[in-house]
Amino acid sequence: MCMFALRKEKSVMKNIRSGKASLLLVLWCMGLATTLYAQGFVGAATAAPRISDSRTMDAFRELRNRVNREAKPPENIRGSYYFQQEFKKARVVYFGEELKGEVYLRYNAYTDEMEFWKGEPGQKKVEEILLKSAKVDCEIEGEYYKLLPYRSKVNNFPLIGYLIVLNDGAKYKLYLQRKKVFMDETKARTSLEQSLPARFVDDITLYYSIGDETPLPLRKSKRGLAKIFKGQEKELKEFLKRENIRLKTNEDYVKVFAYFNKI
């Protein structure tokens, strides 16, 4: 390839002096680009089965990003990055196919990342995380995580992050997001106030979508549900009364969405 390019380069330089450079230069660039594209295409075609083959652990290497950080925050910060500290056996689904082989994951609710356990006892550092891709889903202890676009509950800005699928109906979908939010240290301004250390606090939000629309934050109330199920307010009221649903838990909302996906 290099000798071909060198010979062509010398030929082009010679023809520059003879007034024929323009046409030859264009043809040479086209030939070079075609050769490079063909090599890239063959390489990609050769690599594709290795990445998508769910029977090999090679896929896991393709789906990992390397990092290097402590698994817990500094001692002067109260709280944790995690809702579940331990790594759990998980399923990873890539392009709709489950990857075979044992893998243990832990969701970092502060960085919104899936961390790998490398099998080392007392692992103190996080060295690998799951590739964040819309084509890569994972399930941890029955909770199915999908990387999805959604709207911020603070300012309605578009964001992308992990949402837990609670109900995946054709008409309506319900998701749960568990986040850890960092709060700076708060100094007491008077003797009547109490100082608060730097800390991580829980931030739990339900999201919904109609059809395949972008998930939006759900207002947890009868009024919030009525906004979603427009034109079906009577059915909503009767269902809540019949099933004695008080909308106090996430499970109550799962029941509502399951019902309206059936009717």
Please provide a written account of the structure.
This protein is α+β, with helices and mostly antiparallel strands and 263 residues long. The protein has 3 domains: 2-50; 58-216, no CATH class; 219-263, no CATH class. It contains 6 helices and 12 strands. It has helices at 2-17, 21-52, 58-62, 222-228, 233-242, 250-262, and strands at 64-70, 88-94, 97-98, 104-108, 113-116, 125-130, 136-140, 143-151, 158-168, 172-183, 199-210, 216-217. Strands 2, 3, 4, 5, 7, 8, 9, 10, 11 and 12 form a 10-stranded antiparallel sheet that branches. Strand 7 and strand 8 form a beta hairpin. Helix 1 (2-17) packs antiparallel against helix 2 (21-52). The chain is globular and about 55 Å long. The N and C termini lie far apart (65 Å). Residues 1-57 have low confidence and may be disordered.
* Strands, count: 12
Instruction: Briefly note the structural class of the backbone.
Output: alpha+beta
Low-confidence stretches: 1-57
End-to-end CA span: 65 Å
Can you describe this structure in just a few lines?
With 263 residues, the protein is α+β, with helices and mostly antiparallel strands.
Write the layout of secondary structure elements.
Blueprint: H1 2-17, H2 21-52, H3 58-62, E1 64-70, E2 88-94, E3 97-98, E4 104-108, E5 113-116, E6 125-130, E7 136-140, E8 143-151, E9 158-168, E10 172-183, E11 199-210, E12 216-217, H4 222-228, H5 233-242, H6 250-262
Antiparallel strand pairs: 1-6, 2-3, 2-4, 2-7, 4-5, 7-8, 8-9, 9-10, 10-11, 11-12
Features:
about 260 residues, globular, 12 strands, two-stranded antiparallel sheet, 3 domains, alpha+beta
